[in-house]
Design a protein that fits this description.
The complex is a heterodimer of chains A (114) and B (113). By secondary structure, chain A is an all-beta fold. Chain A has strands at 3-6, 10-14, 19-21, 23-26, 31-38, 44-50, 56-58, 64-68, 73-78, 87-95, 103-104, 108-113. In chain A, strands 2, 5, 6, 10, 11 and 12 form a six-stranded mixed sheet that branches. In chain A, strands 3-9-8-7 form a four-stranded antiparallel sheet, with no helix packed on it. In chain A, strands 1-4 form a two-stranded antiparallel ribbon. Chain A starts with a strand and ends with a strand. Chain B is built from no helices and eleven strands. In chain B, the strands form two sheets. In chain B, strands 2, 4, 5, 6, 9, 10 and 11 form a seven-stranded mixed sheet that branches. Chain B has a four-stranded antiparallel sheet with strand order 1-3-8-7, with no helix packed on it. In chain B, a hairpin with a 6-residue loop joins strand 4 (31-37) and strand 5 (44-50). Chain B starts with a strand and ends with a strand. Classes of the chains: A mainly beta (114), B mainly beta (113). Chains A and B meet through strand 6, strand 10 and strand 11 of A and strand 4, strand 5, strand 9 and strand 10 of B.
């Protein structure tokens, strides 16, 4: 079975400051890793995903994440946040056998302060 | 491509009543997933289909829950004899075999009084 731990439930940050949202996972099999964003009253939107290859993954809206197998982490970063980045962010894993259900963390609420 | 749609967006019901939700996936997607999200939690997997076949069910899916995808297109999720603990956002997602990205609908928010 897989599990995901998002280490911070809330992260306040000032506009134009950098941010890192932390995610650790546990799995006995190979996994794919994902970050989703959920804006208020909207569905989940994929930010980025790691399947294989380069451990540094770039996504939409200037976000990037780095897969670290030895530390079983997949932290999300952005060098300069905007007010519009205020949202709930979810880290998720799935078995790498493909098209399998996602296991999500509890989410991190990013609040960008003007 | 109109995305994944769900109906209704909101449902308020009394305890003990039955409810049914509908999900229409992206048209060419053959995989369809149901998740449940409670306040302050991440989505939790309930069940998924490939075409009309239900491939996996979570332990969360009690006997009061049933899901169907009769023609391999839209899906329904029915909850019988609703309980207050069923109050949650029910999310549907779809994907194409070979593509690991799941596309999510806006969800159906269920409130059981």
């Amino acid at each position: 079975a897989q599990s995901v731990t998002q280490l911070d439930s809330q992260v306040p940050v000032f506009e134009e400051a950098p941010v890192e949202l932390r995610c650790n996972y546990s799995s006995s099999v190979s996994v794919y890793l994902f970050w989703y964003v959920q804006y208020p009253n909207q569905g989940l939107q994929l930010l980025l995903k790691y399947l294989s290859g380069s451990t540094l993954v770039k996504g939409i809206n200037g976000f990037e994440a780095e897969f670290n197998k030895s530390q079983t982490s997949f932290h999300l970063r952005k060098p300069s946040v905007h007010i519009s980045d205020t949202a709930e962010y979810f880290c998720a894993v799935s078995r790498s056998s493909g098209n399998t259900p996602l296991v999500f963390g509890k989410g991190t609420r990013l609040s960008v302060i003007a | 491509d109109t995305g994944v749609s769900q109906d209704p967006r909101h449902k308020i019901t009394k305890r003990g009543q039955n409810v049914t939700f509908r999900c229409d996936p992206i048209s060419e997607h053959n995989r369809l997933y149901w998740y449940r999200q409670t306040l302050g939690q991440g989505p939790e997997f309930l069940t998924y289909f490939q075409n009309e076949a239900q491939l996996e069910k979570s332990r969360l899916l009690s006997d009061r829950f049933s899901a169907e995808r009769p023609k391999g297109s839209f899906s329904t999720l029915e909850i019988q004899r609703t309980e207050q603990g069923d109050s949650a956002m029910y999310l549907c997602a779809s994907s194409q075999t070979g593509d690991n990205e799941q596309f999510f609908g806006p969800g159906t928010r269920l409130t059981v009084l």
